[in-house]
Write a structure and sequence with these properties.
Helix content: over 70%
Order of helices and strands: HHHHHHHHHHH
Strand content: under 5%
Shape: elongated
Distance between the termini: 70 Å
Number of strands: 0
Largest sheet: none
Number of helices: 11
């Protein structure tokens, strides 16, 4: 067991550096020693995701899911796998299962999950739900500058999307509120996004007189 744990630790160190292949080598050796160790299979799933091989990740993570159907990490990782594969409905199922247990996790894990889940909801065209989840992510990310920037940036994009939709629907005051809130995070936007925000906000001001 000591060797299996050591191999998993070394693999995790490799994964933190984005090095999937050394991690695979250690984890497959660990799996040979103890084929039943679920922790090894979960780490193999992570390694496959890092290596951009979601189908392989799915195999390892589904094995872990059969034994740990309510586990936060397993459901979050499967949500990511299905999201990358384009199976958005199944991704949502697993992200929702992960979120139901997220309150027992640290705020960092909650923020990371909500950032991913908010992006999925936007991809599902569930913009209202996406905004709600991303606002929660911003709160969960307090104290972690990197996560805060990512959460605020994603929230700003979702608010721009909702603000545009509200403008199209003739809901000028609601659109203006969304776009003004998005502007508080304008430093997190990239490329042409700040210009788009300013344009839509000008349109909202014109509509609202």
């Amino acid at each position: 067991r000591g060797l299996v744990s050591a191999l998993n630790r070394r693999a995790q160190e490799s994964l933190q550096k984005g090095e999937a292949e050394p991690a695979f080598a250690d984890l497959k050796e660990a799996l040979k020693i103890d084929p039943a160790r679920l922790f090894t299979k979960i780490n193999l799933g992570v390694a496959a995701l890092v290596a951009k091989r979601p189908a392989e990740a799915q195999v390892y993570l589904k094995e872990a899911y059969q034994r740990l159907p309510t586990n936060f990490s397993v459901n979050r990782l499967l949500g990511r796998v299905y999201f990358e594969q384009g199976n958005l409905a199944l991704a949502r199922t697993h992200y929702e299962k992960a979120r139901s247990t997220a309150t027992r996790m640290t705020s960092q894990f909650q923020a990371e999950l909500e950032i991913e889940y908010g992006a999925l909801l936007a991809a599902l065209d569930q913009i209202e739900a996406s905004v709600t989840v991303l606002k929660s992510a911003v709160q969960s990310a307090v104290g972690n500058p990197g996560l805060t920037e990512l959460a605020q940036g994603n929230l700003a994009i979702a608010l721009i999307d909702r603000g545009y939709r509200r403008l199209e629907a003739g809901k000028g005051p609601e659109a203006q509120a969304d776009l003004e809130e998005a502007k508080t995070h304008i430093a997190r936007l990239k490329g042409n996004q700040p210009n788009l925000l300013e344009f839509l906000l000008a349109m909202a001001y014109l509509e609202n007189g």
